[in-house]
Amino acid sequence: MIRNIDSKAPDFTLQNTKGEKVTLSDFQGQANVILLFFPVAFSSTCTKELCTARDNMKLYDSLEAKVMGISVDSFFCLREFKKSENLNFTLLSDFNKEVSAKYNVLNNDFYGMKGVSKRASFVIDKEGTIRFQETLDDASELPDFKAIQEMLSSLN
């Protein structure tokens, strides 16, 4: 379960869109990490959120940040979503809902669906510490990308 800002980010290993395993702690010492939890691939707000991240990748690269989108969709579904929206960052499948639970972002009522991720964002610094978190109860809202960028700037 997620603790507070300035606490250690829970480590995890999930599959990317190629079925390869990606582990959060592998980025320690190398890059800041932005985790973007989102409810479901192909929905309008999720598409807008991830396309906004896509369109700002030059900025995130300059701030030494790796972006990772996480949903409970299968990695097969996420592969098609990534391809259809030309997303230029990692998408990870939390199909078993373990990471969403660790980060306390499971939604028990998303249009009648239980157990999808809430829209939530986290900035994790190079030491593996959570420096920013935002969890939105209204799935139609977008993350505060400006606050994410400001936090990343302050880390460099």
In total, the number of strands is: 9
User: CATH first level: which class?
Assistant: Alpha Beta
Helix run count: 5
C-alpha termini separation: 28 Å
Which quaternary structure do these chains form? single chain
Instruction: Report Rg.
Output: 14 Å
Which homologous superfamily in CATH is the superfamily?
A: Glutaredoxin
Q: Strand portion, in percent?
A: 25-35%
Number of domains: 1
What structural class do helix, strand and pairing data support?
A: alpha+beta
CATH-defined topology: Glutaredoxin
| CATH architectural group | 3-Layer(aba) Sandwich
Overall shape: globular
* Main sheet attributes: strand count, strand direction, barrel closure: 7 strands, mixed
Low-confidence stretches: none
The proportion of residues forming helix, as a percent range, comes to 25-40%
Key phrases:
two-stranded antiparallel sheet, single chain, seven-stranded mixed β-sheet, 156 residues, globular, Glutaredoxin, 26% strand
Secondary structure: elements and pairs:
Layout: E1 13-16, E2 21-23, E3 32-37, H1 44-55, H2 57-62, E4 65-71, H3 75-85, E5 90-93, H4 98-102, E6 106-107, E7 116-117, E8 119-124, E9 130-136, H5 145-155
Parallel strand pairs: 3-4, 4-5
Antiparallel strand pairs: 1-2, 1-5, 3-8, 6-7, 8-9
